[in-house]
Amino acid sequence: MVQETIIRYYRESQMTHIVNDKAWLYKVLHRLCIDHQRSPMKTVSLKAIENREDDSHQELFREYIRIEQLLAPLPEEQATIVKMHFTDELTFSEIADILGISRDTVKSRYRYAMDKLQKTMKKKTNFD
Questions:
Q1: For the chain, which ranges sit under pLDDT 50?
Q2: Residues in CB range of 72: below 8 A, 6 or more apart
């Protein structure tokens, strides 16, 4: 998908001026990821990858799974914003440009997500 994004960027930049390269790249990549998720292609689960004998990326996969489990209860739109903000280190304005929504909407979804995560963490620490 990254390769397809770069190819599309190269083609588009030849024909038009792209104002915000980073936002444009993320927007196209985000759309390609959505298209990929919708396609009926077979995928390999992270659990299957985690069970492989190769230890070189085991910790990375474990961390990814922990993050996904933590974000699983969130609505997809909130989880996406949290991932983009923390993992990709994007600003709220950049996320708004990429997702095609207002900056205020991004901020409110982020705030709701943080509130839910905080409540979840409090519940877990109270039971442990």
A1: none
A2: 79
